[in-house]
Design a protein that fits this description.
The complex is a heterodimer of chains A (435) and B (199).
Chain A lengths: L1 H23 L20 E4 L7 H15 L3 E2 L19 H6 L4 E8 L4 E8 L4 E9 L7 H19 L8 E6 L2 E6 L6 E2 L5 E7 L5 E7 L4 E7 L4 E3 L6 E7 L5 E7 L4 E7 L7 E2 L8 E6 L5 E6 L6 E6 L6 E2 L11 E6 L5 E8 L2 E8 L5 E3 L6 E6 L5 E6 L6 E6 L5 E3 L6 E6 L7
Parallel strand pairs in A: 1-2, 1-3
Antiparallel strand pairs in A: 3-4, 4-5, 6-7, 6-29, 7-8, 9-10, 10-11, 11-12, 13-14, 14-15, 15-16, 17-18, 18-19, 19-20, 21-22, 22-23, 23-24, 25-26, 26-27, 27-28
Helix pairs in contact in A: 2-4
Chain B lengths: L1 H11 L3 H14 L15 H39 L2 E2 L9 H8 L1 H7 L4 E7 L6 H21 L7 E7 L10 H7 L1 E8 L9
Parallel strand pairs in B: 2-3
Antiparallel strand pairs in B: 1-4, 2-4
The chains are: A mainly beta (435), B alpha+beta (199).
Amino acid sequence: MSRFFSILPIAVLGLLTAVGVAHAQDSTVQGVRIGLVYDPGSRPGVIVLPVDGAGGDSIRAILQRDFDYGDRINVVGAEGTGFPLAPTTGEESNYPVYAALGAVALVQATVTGGGSGLHVAVHDVARQSIARVRDFPMRGTPDGGDWRLGVHTVADEIELWITGVRGVSATRVLYISGGRVWVVDSDGFGPRPVSAAGTTMSPAWHPDGTHLAYAQFVGSGWSIMVEELSGGARPLPAPRGLNATPTFSPDGNVIVWAHGGESGTDLFATTVFTNGPARRITVGRGSDNTSPTFSPDGRRVAFTSGRSGHPEVYISDADGTNAELLTPYKFGDQSYRSDPDWSPDGRTVAFQAQLAGRFQVMTIGLRDRSIRQHTNEGSNEQPSWAPDSRHVVFTSTRSGTRQLWVLDTETGRTRQLTHSGGVRMASWSPYLGGR
Amino acid sequence: MLHRVRVLPLLLITTAAFVGACKKKEPAVTPTPEPTPAGGAGCDQRCQDSIANARRVADSIAAANAASAELARAIEAARASLTAVIYFDYDASDIRADSRGTLEAKVPVLTANPSVRLRVTGHTDSRGSDEYNLALGQRRAAAAKQYLTDRGVDPSRIEIVSLGEERPADPAENESAWARNRRAEFEIIAGGTNIQPPR
């Protein structure tokens, strides 16, 4: 404690100096990586310094949590560790103190313009200097949805500076609870309904992040609804019967969904915003074909099909031709694989497989067809990739009720995203933050 | 009195909808016995005839009541046949042998009631994929419809829908609950107010 106070005056001086330096470096060329060496095997230690100004405590807490949830940064001294409140340079340099704590970078943020902006400086501890600075605009009131998205945007940008990979905290997750579509921030904050009450299933984000689609039961059948998040919903013109599991093409122009009539369920495609004709893209010959997901180049589609007698994951060209079994089939194997989601980097497809009567989240590498099992506790289903192609949100019964959980497919680390009962069918948004 | 006796057979052959209504009106038809003590001393021929008449009326009303009750039972049986549930094997939409009789019993009722329309809703157990199960439920409803249309029922009289695993009949998670949930339900969506039993 005494050490803490002795450092304080220096720290305040240091802060002023740092801010001055930071402003002087505003001309830093964008896109130049800071000089930190990022080893994917070990997470760089980062200290988030206390943040001055309105909502500062919240900003620091959100940044720290975002870095932690990102699984690429080791947040140092998040709770209670005594460390200098600001770096100092020259004769009185305290950078070695940060280095001794295991930090390779310091994040120093200051609320500016009475809350309308956030000035951020990232220090390279080894070089004892500021590596990156930027002023971010802030919208809304502290702890509101827009404001939090602004802080997440800052966290994701800092993660990009430090690790070379943008974070995914400025994202949201759609899901189904109590028959409605809901949306929640990536850190679990602010769950709220986005569809009317009713019976809905299978929400999917439009790649622009402003629209969604879902299936809605309307008494005599199912319709695909296309909804603007800040506006109304309209049914997609589609034949009567079963209309389910919508997905958007990566360019956002085409919607593909499963339509079932009296002779099986096939995938159909139509244009999203103009009333084009619906065309059939799978020929299931009476079998069931559902849950389509596009490759990021829009050329291929993975989907669930029962054409071989039981559900398996197939891949075909986007027009339905050249269908091939993705998940390997073993003779006599009566297991069940379904609900694929193609990773945004195009390399991996996540799906669910029934093992010993329960679903588990699996991934298959498209290059070598290597399969990995990522879960084993309870039943785990309906995986959906984050924009970083590393994290997956899925439905799990491991806590006793169906909840959404987030999995880091590289480390196996999981966290619970939702806490109200009966939640399922998650869809992770594209990146929603500013750039 | 005689007038009423003649009216009665007429009542019996009026439409089935009327039968229900007649049943409620029966107290009005019941003859009030003559104040004369039945068959007692001083009952002349006219009196005896009157008693006999009253007995005939009472007997025919009892018969009508019995017929009406039988008709009501037949209507109820016809309705029960139409809405009887059928069950399926895991991940299958084939009509099971034990469901054929249930479906077969619907055919004469549908034939006797050309204005009746049905909605068949396919359901699944909770074990598969929620999304794929919507398609499986659709396939089950379609299989039930196909059976009926193969037996001559006009396809336009049957609409099909799937609720997948969204509306379990039994929310438990065990074999017997799953078996009860893998089903197709039949709902009368038109022509249900005036069901005629098959002849």
